[in-house]
Amino acid sequence: MPHDLKESQLRAIQYFYVDGTYEFGFGLLCLILAGYFYAEAHVSGWLSAIVDASLVLVMIGGGYLIQLLIRRLKERLTWPRTGYVSYQRKKGIQRGWRIGLVLVIGGVIGGVVASATTMLVMNQDIQIAVMPLISGLLLGMVMVILGWRTSIPRFYIMALLSAALGVTLAYSGLENSVGLIAYYASFAVVQLFTGTCVLRTYLRQNPLHKESPDEH
Fold it and tell me: In angstroms, rounded to a whole number, what is the distance separating the alpha carbons of residues 124 and 190?
């Protein structure tokens, strides 16, 4: 692939993340997960079974809300300033792969939580909160992949913060459920703070130009 074409594709990808709206969407997902794990820790009986089985639906619904929030923010703030970029919509098999990926991610998180819970029940000698540690490392990997794909340094910083937050909560003495809720709530704050800083910089560098009134 020619170098100029690669550069153009990279700039198009980076444009999606230039305004911090992605962080607002990802922060919303983290808040949803914090609420989910809070509900999971505070319900019992048949309600607990329903909550456990709803994780995939939570992930799909959260993904939809992220897309909706990001689009609304871009419609109001980004596109009037620096224009609209039309990304190729995934159709057919490609769209099926995206839906499948969401299901796999939801299944992985659910499997990790279930496995960690089973391990804790079977081995009471474990002195660390395993679930926030694993979540911190998993989302840290997601941030690394984003950083590699976009060549945007802030994602690598968030990856380090995610891992550091997971490790800190793992050795904080909190119970696993409390640590897991604290991780997702805290990482949501990190995402929202980062998104706010990026958005402020973007708005300052790209003021909205008002059309001058027609003098004729």
Answer: 32
